[in-house]
What does this fold into?
Amino acid sequence: MDAISLAEEADELYRRGEFEDAVLFYDRAMERDSENKELYNRRGLALCRMDRHQDAIDSFDAALKIDPQYTDALNNKGVVFYKQKRYDGAMALFDQIIEQDPKYVRAWYNKGVVLDRLGRFREAVICYDKAIDINPGGARIWSNRGAALGNMGELEGAIDSFDRS
It folds into this structure.
């Protein structure tokens, strides 16, 4: 099988929740196409789903070695840092993405999630608002915005946000 066919099979395994098998197929695809940053990124996502966080980071780093500006890998690495409670590292990655691409909605959303976790609700709402400006239909963004506003005691704004989610 060629790299594309192997990657497609890996993607299908990933969608079915068969993450270990997906990683094996991504590995086989990477043997045939070792410079494909997307394969490393998707492999990292599968590893993350198995809670193999350091392996996921290593895979994202391999993608970033190919393309240091690869926003998807930077974002996914930031998400893993968040899961590991490495909030400063996650914030730095999301800020780097925002600097590179201010329209990258997931970076604004994820930065908001980190700020929310740190109890910095006002700053989180600002990030969620930026994400909403880019993607007004993002239900999770509206929901998180509502929760942050609720945590600040701004119940009217919270209810409005929940209604939009």
Remarks:
- The mean pLDDT is 97.
